[in-house]
Amino acid sequence: MGMNSTPSGERVHISFFGRRNAGKSSVLNAVTGQELAVVSDVKGTTTDPVMKSMELLPLGPVVMIDTPGIDDEGELGALRVRKSYQILNKTDVAVLVADASVGFGDAEEALLAKIQEKRIPCVVVWNKADLVSGQAEEPDGGSHGVIRVSAATGQGIDELKECLARLGKPEENGRRIIADLLSPGDTVVLVVPIDKAAPKGRLILPQQQTIRDILEADAFSLVVRDTGLKAALGQLREKPQLVVTDSQAFKKVAADTPEDIPLTSFSILFARYKGELLPMVQGVKALDGIQDGDRILICEGCTHHRQCDDIGTVKMPGWIRAYTGASPDFAFVSGTEFPEDLSPYRMIVHCGGCMLNAREMRYRLQCAQDQGVPMTNYGMTIAHTQGILKRSLEPFEELRGIL
């Protein structure tokens, strides 16, 4: 396990934007000290976003993202520009690179306005400063100002790195996955089904992160399969503080877990950890009003090989149809895709988002709220359709007056 084992969703995402040939890739390479991005005198060399996980001192684990030019032309160019703008949704720190010998134009102004609208920390880099004599007229870089650099000579690169470290320092929000629910010596039973869809030889990311947080609380974790839960509970001398299950096994686990033992799911824990618990709880109630023909958008944050009983495209629609007694229409998106126009949808059901960074999930939830479309996640949808939502939320004091 090295520095690159830090999950992508937990890394600070730093994105470099600018016109074609403004020197985005050269500045990125100068900051990292590595040839991460292709550099060429030909306009438009970067045609798709390029991401690289690395360690950037003094900040720590980051994802560096090089984007296509924001002034690309033609039908294909417009698609590339849109991809650059989409990258904003997962950007924690934006670097807007402008060519000092060309100046700051409409394309830069439009992007800077969008960055400020999304409240993303941003630094404007005045590149190729070594080619401009005197003090060329610089743009207004906003609250974080403008840094004059030369990727060719190294001028201003150290100052830029210090700025990125300052802007990229994670917010201390005090949230924990599970540790704040535990005392030293408590036992947590984690239920992890092993089936043909499970990754071979490893646990999925939310399970790993939950175990780590339990260890940091000086508590004990007992990991069992859904088929072994009842036997495991019978062997414990004291009842566990909490049982946490994979959402797909919710119904069986709820039946095998005595009512006096608190129960929840990984998906619900992570909605709470990312600050999405309350809106997701409110969003799941939209299921009660679903009618024939209503459109439901099902989103997965990662792409994977689909099984014949895939949770997103098969199981989730089945559970929703059985619960509502209706025949809604389902639409599916995965990976970085997320529609700008959500108005056609009655509600959105999203995966736990373990492979998306917090900014991307906040953006998606905010888009849904802005357009008045309820949004919830897989875990809450499964719990609600199985009639165990209230029980699965009882461990969280902040919801006591809402349930």
Strand-helix topology:
Layout: E1 12-18, H1 24-32, E2 50-56, E3 60-66, H2 74-87, E4 93-99, H3 106-117, E5 122-127, E6 146-148, H4 157-167, E7 187-191, H5 205-216, E8 220-224, H6 229-235, E9 242-245, H7 250-256, E10 263-265, H8 266-273, H9 277-284, E11 295-300, H10 311-324, E12 329-334, E13 347-350, H11 358-370, E14 375-377, H12 378-385, H13 389-393
Parallel strand pairs: 1-3, 1-4, 4-5, 5-6, 7-8, 7-9, 9-10, 11-12, 11-13, 13-14
Antiparallel strand pairs: 2-3
Give the gist of this structure.
By secondary structure, this protein is α/β, with parallel strands linked by helices. It has helices at 24-32, 74-87, 106-117, 157-167, 205-216, 229-235, 250-256, 266-273, 277-284, 311-324, 358-370, 378-385, 389-393; strands at 12-18, 50-56, 60-66, 93-99, 122-127, 146-148, 187-191, 220-224, 242-245, 263-265, 295-300, 329-334, 347-350, 375-377.
Secondary-structure element series: EHEEHEHEEHEHEHEHEHHEHEEHEHH
CATH superfamily of the domain at 3-167: P-loop containing nucleotide triphosphate hydrolases
Specify the CATH architecture of the domain at 3-167: 3-Layer(aba) Sandwich
The parts where pLDDT drops under 50 for at least 5 residues are 37-46
CA(first)-CA(last) distance: 42 Å
Structural class: alpha/beta
- CATH class value of the domain at 3-167: Alpha Beta
Q: What Rg is obtained from the alpha carbons, in whole angstroms?
A: 24 Å
Which strand order does the major sheet show?
A: 2-3-1-4-5-6
